[in-house]
Amino acid sequence: MQEQQPTANTPYFTFQFGLLCLSNFLFSTSFNMMIPELPGYISLLGGESYKGLIIALFTLMAGISRPFSGKLTDTVGRVPVMIFGSLVCVVCSLLYPVLTTVAGFLFLRFLHGFSTGFKPTATAAYGADVVHESRRGEALGALSIGYTLGSSAGPMIGSYLVDHFSYNTMFYASSVFALGSLAILYNVKETLKNPRPFALQHLRVSKNEIVEKSAFKPALINLLLCLSIGCTITIAPDLSEHLGMHNKGMFFAFFTIASLVIRLVASKVSDRYGRVPVLLVSSFVLVISMVILAFAGSVTMMMIGSVIYGLSWGINSPAISAWTVDLSPPESRGKAIATMYIALEVGIGAGALFSAEIYNNQADHFKYAFLAPGFFALLAFFLLIRWNKKSKQTNALTG
Question: I need a labelling partner for 293 at 20 to 30 A (CA). Which of 218, 229, 249, 300 fits?
Answer without folding.
Answer: 218
